[in-house]
Design goal:
Two copies of one chain form a homodimer. Chain A has six helices and ten strands; from the N terminus they run E-H-E-E-H-E-E-E-H-E-E-E-H-H-E-H. Chain A is an alpha+beta fold and 265 residues long. Chain A has two domains: 3-110, 2-Layer Sandwich (Alpha-Beta Plaits); 115-252, Alpha-Beta Plaits (2-Layer Sandwich), CATH 3.30.70.
Chain lengths: 265, 265
């Protein structure tokens, strides 16, 4: 056995990182930090390929990346690899949840069938304490029914140019939104957490944050659900709502067709 | 109107504090930090009386405290008071969830009818990232059914000396445990969070953390539920399990008889 491809499932708090890739000079990226841990452990340089690049401040509870490792004649299990990488990452807010050997034709990005993002919004007057940097804090009470109605308007196959960052590099603005649920988690001493759960094969840059920012306008009564439809049809970023902050966004899970990721060791 | 008693409902992350009261020289306590915010806002010294003192590293999502404020001829609402205090606490991990004017005979500690504590345990191999300092991380898989059976043995009126810190100052070791539920929150990419929810009128020092530490021995198969009963009957701290770390513990809610806390303004 020479070259082995590994699939890593990764959790991180994005707050102190320059995104998955290096976006800010002098601030380490999540990718750099994990690649360094691999190099420190295996004494070889490697390149991580990720399922979904996340921006600075965005978190992940189920990011996926793959890389190739030449471990010579020795054998290593996924358990040993994840344990070793976590030891090297112990001062980082990055944790390897799982390391799985996969076949050489597996690709973390190209083979992903869809991705689940969660957006956490703390809806109460008082500021967050232990959830600081982990939620978007919105003080005013929001109309949940109106927001849910607005969310319905975004489901399906559309030109999402209205919800696309100016710097987005995707070739096409067409995307298919399979899910945009809004759940409530009541808090014991007043207020509530609002969770947006969205699934799609892929997203445009800032699409989730722009959709959330727009739906909050609906929750505040500044927009109607019909305004969401009009904005979508305009195919114009200037007609959309503001971009929600990165703090509340989590790449929660990346899904693959079973046969591609099945364990081969 | 001269002197007004106020009931504060408070959230905090205990990680960087020396407990509710000052326990460690040079590290501020939660109490000091809030008293300073009140002084900075009102230009008068005051003394906070708390429902339940928490140790260093222990958090609260619903701590309650009261204090008296002489605001002269001016009037202030609970909304204005909590907003002002939160502004003064903006660099702290402390948040005033609610400020409510109460009658002069209300006492945060003596009138509390029962308290709900939550203990969060992250049960997976990989270390926590954004939950660092907010959960107890236990790597090995735990037997939930055995833990639930063990928890049942602790319900009711008992001498809890086995689960009492050596330095506990309570006059009697007798306490009545009304609830000790164990809930599971599955995590999307493997592992789970185990939540202990316990209610009682009052607790001995370290009682919740000592009960959780003991039940984890049961979950690991080192103890049986019968061993929990034997330990309880021994009325001897040396017969109990280890003290779980403070990181996972939250004072979630303090309950009062309605007539005592009803708003009077």
């Amino acid at each position: 056995m020479s070259l082995q491809r590994w699939k890593l499932t990764i959790e991180y708090q994005g707050t102190d990182y320059s995104g998955w890739q290096c976006q800010i000079e002098g601030i380490p990226s999540v990718q750099q930090s994990i690649e360094k841990a691999i190099t420190d452990f295996c004494q070889q340089n490697c390149r991580l390929h990720v399922a979904g690049r996340t921006d600075a401040g965005v978190h992940a509870s189920g990011q996926v990346a793959h890389f190739d490792l030449d471990y010579g004649e020795r054998e290593i299990t996924g358990f040993q690899l994840s344990k070793a990488l976590n030891a090297h990452l112990r001062f980082q807010k990055i944790s390897i949840l799982n390391a799985q050997p996969v076949s050489q034709d597996f690709h973390a990005r190209y083979h992903a069938s869809h991705k689940l993002y969660t957006y956490r919004l703390l809806n109460r007057f008082a500021p967050p304490t232990y959830d600081h940097s982990l939620v978007w804090h919105v003080r005013n009470d929001l109309d949940l029914d109106a927001m849910k109605a607005g969310a319905q308007r975004l489901l399906g196959h559309h030109d999402f140019s209205t919800f696309r960052a100016i710097k987005c590099q995707a070739k096409s603005p067409m995307r298919t939104l399979d899910r945009l649920d809004i759940d409530i988690v009541p808090l014991s001493c007043g207020g509530r957490e609002i969770r947006f759960l969205t699934e799609a094969r892929s997203y445009l840059h800032h699409q989730v944050r722009n959709m959330v920012g727009t739906l909050v306008l609906v929750g505040q009564g500044k927009w109607t659900p019909d305004d969401v439809s009009c904005a979508l049809k305009a195919c114009d970023r200037t007609q959309g709502g503001p971009t929600a902050p990165p703090d509340g966004l989590y790449l929660s899970q990346v899904f693959y067709a079973d046969q591609i990721t099945k364990e081969i060791l």
